[in-house]
Specification:
Two copies of one chain form a homodimer. Chain A has twelve helices and 13 strands. By secondary structure, the first copy, chain A, is an alpha/beta fold. Chain A is elongated and about 90 Å long. Chain A binds a DNA duplex (30 and 30 nucleotides) through helix 2 and helix 4.
Amino acid sequence: MATIWDVARRAGVSSTTVSRHLAGQRVREAAAVQASIEALDFRANEVARSLKSGVTRTIGLVVPDVSNPFFAAVAKGVESVSRQLELNVFLSNTDENDERERAVLRGLIGRVDGVILAPAREKSDNTAELRRAGVPIVLLDRRLEDGEDLDCVLVDSAGGAAQAAEHLLGLGHQRFGLISGPLDTTPGRERYEGFTAALEAAGVHLDPALMQMGDFKEDSGYQAALRLLGLPFAVTAIFAANNLMSIGALQALHHLGVRVPEEVSFIGFDDLELAELLSPPLTVISRPTIEQGVLAMRLLRNRIEGKGRGRAQHIVLDTRLTVRGSCQRLHTSDDVSDVTTPAPQEAVMTRNNT
Amino acid sequence: MATIWDVARRAGVSSTTVSRHLAGQRVREAAAVQASIEALDFRANEVARSLKSGVTRTIGLVVPDVSNPFFAAVAKGVESVSRQLELNVFLSNTDENDERERAVLRGLIGRVDGVILAPAREKSDNTAELRRAGVPIVLLDRRLEDGEDLDCVLVDSAGGAAQAAEHLLGLGHQRFGLISGPLDTTPGRERYEGFTAALEAAGVHLDPALMQMGDFKEDSGYQAALRLLGLPFAVTAIFAANNLMSIGALQALHHLGVRVPEEVSFIGFDDLELAELLSPPLTVISRPTIEQGVLAMRLLRNRIEGKGRGRAQHIVLDTRLTVRGSCQRLHTSDDVSDVTTPAPQEAVMTRNNT
DNA sequence: CGGAGATCTGGTATCGATTGCAGTCATCGT
DNA sequence: ACGATGACTGCAATCGATACCAGATCTCCG
C-alpha cells in the first residue's frame, strides 16, 4: 500500500501538505496531490490514523446471542446506522455469561470509540473499566444496577408483561404458568414483576410452583413447559418471557400433544417471524426491534461526538399486544375468544407508558 | 491508559525490556516489570501494536443480511471460533447489494487480517482490491466466478434442490411452482439448476411461467407466491429457494386461504426454528448453519497463519431432506402421504455428494 | 514602495508499541 | 588472568499518519 510519503514525493510536496489536503484544507498543489493520490490508489492507513488521533472509528456491539432473532434485528439496526456514519462494528456474543462479557469488554478498551451493550446481568461491574477509560456506553434492552448515568434504550417490559396478564385475566384465566427469564436481568425481572403485579392487582396470586425459571434460551423454555405440565394442578394459561423460550415451550407442548389454545392458552413476549403461521397463530407482546438498534446507535453517536456532554438519556419504547389465536376464553370453548374472532387484520393494542 | 514507558519507568528498566517481557522473553527484572504492569493495570495499546506489526487481530464478516436466521447462525459460529483465537470480528451487511458490498470491502482494507464473505453476486470483481492487497478471503455459502483460487464453505445446493424435486415427484406431482433466488448468486443458480435438472431427468418440464424470481427476501417470496397462485393452471407443489422467501410464500398462501398441503404441497430450502410447529409442519431441505461459520473461520485462520500457503480448499457440506407435513401425495388426499405418517421422529434423509 | 496581515509551506515531534544493533556484564574454559 | 561465549540491556529507528511551529510567499493598502 502506498503511504502518504509516496503521494507527497510524487506530487512534489511534503507529507504535511498531503495530510492537509486529505483533511479538506485548501492547498496550493491540490490538483497535483489529488492526481498523485489517484495514480497510486492511495488510502490512508486507518491504524496509523487511529494511533495519532486516538479515534478508532469503530464501536463494539456486545449482545448475549446474535442468533436470537431479536438481537439479530438489533444488530441490523445498529449496523445500518453505523454504515452511514462510516463506523465499523465489532460484534461479540457473551452467551448470557457474565464472565465472558467481562473478558469481551476488557478486550474492547482502546479499540473502540464506544460500546453498545446488552448486559448479561443487572448487577455487574463489568463496565467499570470501560467507564474509567472514558469509553461511552449505551445500554441496550437491559439496565445495569449502577448504570443510571448511562444512556439506554429499553422497552416497557413490565407494562408488556402486564398487558399479557390482563389479556389472560380478561379471558377468565386464574391459574397461570410463568416461564420467566433470569431475575438478575432486566427483561427477566421486569417481565416477572409486571406479570405478577398485574395478577395481584386482580386478586390472583401466582403459586411459586407455577413460576419456572429459564435462561432465555430455547431448551430452558422446553424444560420449563415440561415441568409446568407435569404439575398436579393444571395451568390454563402460560406466559413465556421471551421468544426463544416461547419456541421451546411450544415445542414441548407440541410433543406432549397438548392442544393450544383448547387445553392451555399461550402468550409470549417478543414477536416471531412465523408467529402468524403457527397453529394456532401465536398471540404475543411485540415491540420494535431494528428500531431499538437504530436508536441505540444514534445515542452512542451523540455521546461520542459530544464526549459525555449532557445527562443520560433513557428511552423506553412501548410494547404492543398482538392478538392472534393462541389464547382462548376459559371454560367456554365455543364462546367468544380471540381464536374465533375472524379478524382480517390482527387486533393490536398499544400500551402507552409514562 | 498507562503506556509501556510508564511501566518501564516504574520498574526502573527501558521500554524495550518491558516489550520483551510482554513477548515472553527472559528478562532479569521480570518480577519488577510484572509488578509494575499489574500496579498500573497496563494493557498494550493494540492500535500501536497493529501499526508496527501490520497485524490487526481482526477479521471482517460480510454477509447480505444478519437478520436472516441463516446468516445470524453463521455469525454465531464465526464469532465463537474467533473468540477462541482472540480475534475481533467486524460485521457488515450488504443487503444483497453489489455496490454496497464493494464499498464495505474497500473500507476493510488495512483494518483486517482476513475476510469471510458471502458475495451478493457471483460475477463481481469486488474482491480484486482485497486480493491485490494480499488479504486472505474465505467465501461463505456462495461462490465467486473468478474465485476458484479462494477457500470456500458451501452446501450442496443443487443436490438439495434435487432432493426436494425428487421428493415431490415421488409424491406424484407434475406441476411445480419454483420460487427462485437470483440466478447470479450461487444458491439461486444452483438451486434452480438442481431443481429443474431433477425434473428434466424425470421427464417433467418446468413451464417458465411457473418459475418466479425472488431476491431471497421475505416480501419477494410473498409476491412470487401470489403470482403463482394467480396463474390459470394451478400448481400442485411449490419449492422456495430459501428460508425468508419460504416465510413470505407461506404467508401469502395463508392470506389467500390456500390450504397446505391439501391444495398445494410446499417445501423450502433452509430449516426454520419453528418449522416443526407450523400448521402443517414444514418439510424442508436443511443443512448445517453454525457449523458453516465455524468451518469458514477455521479456513481463514489457516490462511492467515499460513499466509497463502497451499491450494484453495473447497468444502461442500451435505443437505438433508427433513420430511414433516407440508407435502402430500397428489390426487389421493386420504392416501399415504408424509403428512399422515405418524412419525414420532421426523423422517430424515441425508444426501451424500461426491 | 514597504510593511501588516493572511495564506500556505515543510521540518519535526508525536502517538505507543516493536526490533536491529551495539554495548555491558557475568560466566567459563584454558 | 584473559579472551571467548552467552545472557541481557538500552538506544534509536520504525510503522504511517497528524499537529505544532516557524518560516516563506503572497495580497493589499496607505
